[in-house]
Amino acid sequence: MHSNTRASASRQSVAQAAVNTRVIQELDAAHYLHPFTDSKALASHGARVMVKGEGIYIWDSEGKRLLDGMSGLWCMNVGYGRKSIADAVYAQMQQLPFYNSFFQTTNVPAVQLAAKLVEISPPQFNHVFFTGSGSEGNDTIIRMVRRYWDLQGYQDRHVIISRHNAYHGSTMAGASLGGMSGMHQQGGLPIPGIVHIGQPYYLEGGKGKTPEEFGIEAASWLEKKILEIGADKVAAFIGEPVQGAGGVIIPPATYWPEIQRICDKYGILLIADEVICGFGRLGHWFGSEYFGVKPDLMTFAKGVTSGYVPLGGVLVGDRVADVLIEKGGDFNHGFTYSGHPVACAAALENIRIIEEEKLVGRVRDDTGPYLKRKFETLANHLLVGAAETCGFVAGLNLVQKKAASLHDCRLFDAKLDVGMICRSHMFNNGMIMRAVGERMIIAPPLIMAHAEIDEMVDLIRACLDMTLADLTQRGLMPAPAQATENI
Ligand code: PXG
């Protein structure tokens, strides 16, 4: 086909596609490479087309309503359909849609947002570096941390310690910091100078120990690694307060304070990746506050704008900022969209909403504890070995045979993909819940009221029932009489 003809055919089908699911799916399969997706497999059945969002719900192009238990992708903290954010964006676009911050210039929303972030963050933070995403935030952190040590004459102090099954983004540096082996296998990662220790996943590794004992043990792996590498070579430790993409891994209460103690002992910088945990998700502005730790640097993204427009960045603590500013001269790093005025205007309005509706305090004192009570009742389901929450993130483990502790349950063979079977039942019945292996997870919008939490947990239970019936029919469950033991 001549390219002009093809372009006009494509324009025509784009116009039709606005009301036609199949056409959108075909165009999607023909032209759109999705992130973290097997494009060939997706093309064989077609993507679900999302067209609208309101509050905690989204709608697909077939008119089906779904309760969005994942807040988009851990980001829709204030929920969908906030006109005031759209208004703030529209007004800023008319006033000044863009200007850069590179050449001795600045813009009003970026400055106001930096000041606001300093106000809501712990006292050691007085400076902000803006990026377009969480991945770029973590790339920025690697460069800042290494520069911090260089400027003080420690050129060898470049190693950053992270954790297996961590997620820190998808750029070369973000994926290297992350501990996802499937990501490392593609593109020759990790880049040099990044090493990983085990994750503090009690349900996986804590058999025979109390959570408190296991938390101390998991933190001790950091000290062991520091001594193995040599403390004079270790620049920083990075961790998500609660690991999100890894499956909502909630560390025992002893873990983070012990990590802090070890970092302090060896003078190592502590980095909290707050991309998921920030902006109220754990009932505090930042997740590290929930765990009582004092990071030197924090990455943020997602909840800073509730996902309405892309924005990320780094909160830079005084320890690092003082060195970079006093001794650093030019910091040769930045993005076209660092401090984008439209993104910053959206963030300011988003934070104003969070404050006005007291969402952080509500999650901490009211809806978070309520979600905990409700969600943890799911642990009595025949298919569930454990169910736990932390603020507004939660996870449950699907098991083949229950026991009093998850450590004694019989787990499903990973090849059966039981998590994905369960996720399909959720999706088909109007509930968006993620599967990470056999762990089913949620991170719902922070605006949920009690009635919506009830609705969500009831829906999850109904979908678990359907999953159980399905698995039983497929012959994957033990006979009823043997389904439970030692309870
Ligand atoms: N840090 C953390 C803790 C994240 O969760 C990033 C950094 C990267 O942010 P950007 O904005 O560059 O995507 C994230 C992103 C999943 C999933 O499967 C999670 C994320 C992204 C994509 C998928 O749960 N988190």
Structure notes:
This protein is an alpha/beta fold and 487 residues long. The chain has two domains: 55-78 and 360-484, Aspartate Aminotransferase, domain 1 (Alpha-Beta Complex), CATH 3.90.1150; 84-356, Aspartate Aminotransferase, domain 2 (3-Layer(aba) Sandwich). Helix content is 43%, strand content 15%. Helix 11 runs parallel beside helix 12 (255-266). The longest helix is centred in the last third of the chain and has 24 residues, at 450-473. The protein starts with a helix and ends in a 14-residue tail after the last helix. Residues 1-9 and 12-17 have low confidence and may be disordered. The protein binds 3-[O-phosphonopyridoxyl]--amino-benzoic acid (PXG). Residues 73, 133-135, 138, 167-169, 174, 240, 244-245, 273, 275-276, 301, 312 line the site of 3-[O-phosphonopyridoxyl]--amino-benzoic acid.
Spans of at least 5 consecutive residues whose pLDDT stays below 50 are 1-9, 12-17
- The percent range for helix content is 40-55%
Task: Return the CATH architecture of the largest domain.
Answer: 3-Layer(aba) Sandwich
Q: What is the CATH topology assignment of the largest domain?
A: Aspartate Aminotransferase, domain 2
Portion of residues in beta strands equals 5-15%
Radius of gyration, taken over Cα atoms and rounded to an integer in Å = 23 Å
Shape: globular
